[in-house]
Amino acid sequence: MQTAKAGKQKRFTVKEWSWIMYDWANSIYATNIMAAIFPTIFVSIAGDAGDIWWGYGTSIATFIVAILAPLLGAVADYKGMKKKLFTASMLVGVVFTFVIALVMNNWRLMLVGYILSRIGFSASCLFYDSFLTDVTTDERMDKVSSWGYAMGYIGGSTIPFVISIAALLILGYGNPIAQKFSIIIVSVWWLLFSIPFLKNVEQTHYIERTPETSIGHIFRNILHTARDIFQRKGLFLFVLAYFFYIDGVGTIISISTAYGTVLGLGTVGMILALLVTQIVAMPCSIWFANIAQKITARKALIGAIIIYTLICCVGFYMGFSLEPHQQAYETALKADYTDQLADLTDENAIALRDAGAKYFTDKNAQGKLNEEAAKLTDEQQSSPEVNRVMITFAEFIGKHAETLQKFQGAISFSTVLFWAMAFMVGTVQGGIQAVSRSYFGKLIPKERSNEFFGFFDIFGKFASVMGPFLYATIGAWTGRSSYGVLALICLFLVGLVIMIRGKKELDALESHSAD
Question: Are the beta carbons of 424 and 307 closer than 8 angstroms?
Answer without folding.
Answer: yes
